[in-house]
């Protein structure tokens, strides 16, 4: 599986979970796809197929897709054909994502409604302005899934999102494409992390945690190698002095590419190895147990 296929599978998995929840929350739901023609329209077409499959959940609600790209004359026709008479509304906007994304969202009424944006800037010829991602903040709730070219730092794009995470796709020691996810929902962040580790592993593509100073490559697995998380968690405890198990689970979820459940497993191994101490000493490892360096 190539990096493009991994990104596409992540998008599909997240959409499949996001659409039913969004339709349950609001009467109008908008999915926005930036650089929709950057990969020949393959990702946008995959997204339409997922949205069409979810139209059974609409029942009097409105589900719309806004696709923006340099020239969507051909891609837009294919998207409309995929949508057919399913009830999915497709708005295809040409003229460039950097120039038209925010305008297209406003024209589609993507304000104060559930909104998910996928911006595949890694497949485009330009690095997006962080303000472009800010256009998604008008959703209520809002989420974004962004890909960046190798070497582009994710921090400017995480700003303004209450919860955000980033993961690097890599095949060797060279910098790889970056995936950035931002949301206002802790539950949605957990869902994204589950999808992240559930994608099919193929063709040597692995993950790298941007926060890991050793830049360790991690195989994609439902039980990922805990080494980078162990190092990051020990460094975190050195900075803060001590933290509860709940705080360490939150740190893993928001500050690393790992899940909260991975943090619990690492805490157990750190205690068993004597690297950290717990307070109180005995009993169940509940969320209020305090962990500190030994």
Description:
The structure is a single chain. A hairpin with an 8-residue loop joins strand 8 and strand 9. This protein has a 9-stranded mixed beta sheet with strand order 3-2-1-4-5-7-6-8-9, with helices on both faces. Strands 10-12-11 form a 3-stranded antiparallel beta sheet. Helix 1 packs parallel to helix 2. The protein has 2 domains: 3-213, Rossmann fold; 227-293, Winged helix-like DNA-binding domain superfamily/Winged helix DNA-binding domain (Arc Repressor Mutant, subunit A, Orthogonal Bundle). The protein is built from 10 helices and 12 strands. The chain is an alpha/beta fold.
Into which percentage range does the β-strand content fall?
15-25%
- Residue windows where pLDDT falls under 50 for at least 5 positions: none
Number of domains: 2
Physical arrangement of strands within the biggest beta sheet: 3-2-1-4-5-7-6-8-9
Average per-residue pLDDT, rounded, comes to: 92
Main β-sheet description: 9 strands, mixed
Structural class: alpha/beta
> What CATH first level of the largest domain would be assigned?
Alpha Beta
- Give the proportion of residues in helices: 40-55%
**Radius of gyration over alpha carbons?**
20 Å
Number of strands: 12
């Amino acid at each position: 599986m190539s990096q493009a296929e991994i990104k596409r599978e992540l998008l599909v998995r997240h959409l499949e979970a996001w659409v039913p929840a969004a339709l349950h929350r609001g009467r109008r739901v908008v999915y926005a796809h930036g650089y929709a023609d950057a990969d020949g329209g393959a990702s946008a077409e995959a997204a339409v197929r997922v949205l069409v499959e979810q139209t059974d959940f609409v029942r009097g609600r409105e589900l719309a897709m806004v696709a923006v790209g340099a020239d969507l004359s051909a891609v837009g026709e294919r998207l409309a054909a995929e949508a057919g008479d399913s009830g999915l509304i497709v708005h295809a906007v040409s003229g460039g994502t950097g120039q038209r994304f925010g305008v297209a969202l406003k024209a589609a009424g993507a304000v104060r409604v559930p909104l998910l944006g996928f911006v595949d800037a890694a497949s485009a010829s330009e690095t997006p302005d962080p303000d472009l991602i800010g256009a998604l903040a008008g959703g209520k709730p809002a989420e974004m899934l962004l890909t960046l070219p190798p070497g582009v730092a994710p921090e400017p794009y995480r700003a303004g999102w209450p919860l955000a995470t980033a993961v690097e796709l890599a095949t060797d020691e060279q910098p790889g494409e970056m995936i950035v996810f931002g949301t206002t929902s802790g539950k949605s962040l957990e869902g994204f992390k589950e999808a992240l580790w559930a994608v099919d592993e193929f063709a040597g593509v692995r993950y790298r945690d941007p926060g890991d100073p050793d830049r360790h490559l991690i195989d994609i697995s439902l039980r990922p190698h805990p080494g980078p998380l162990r190092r990051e968690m020990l460094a975190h405890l050195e900075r803060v002095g001590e933290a509860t198990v709940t705080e360490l689970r939150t740190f893993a979820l928001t500050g690393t590419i790992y899940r909260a459940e991975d943090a619990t497993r690492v805490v157990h191994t750190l205690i068993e190895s004597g690297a950290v101490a717990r307070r109180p000493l005995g009993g169940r490892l509940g969320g209020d147990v305090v962990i500190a360096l030994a």
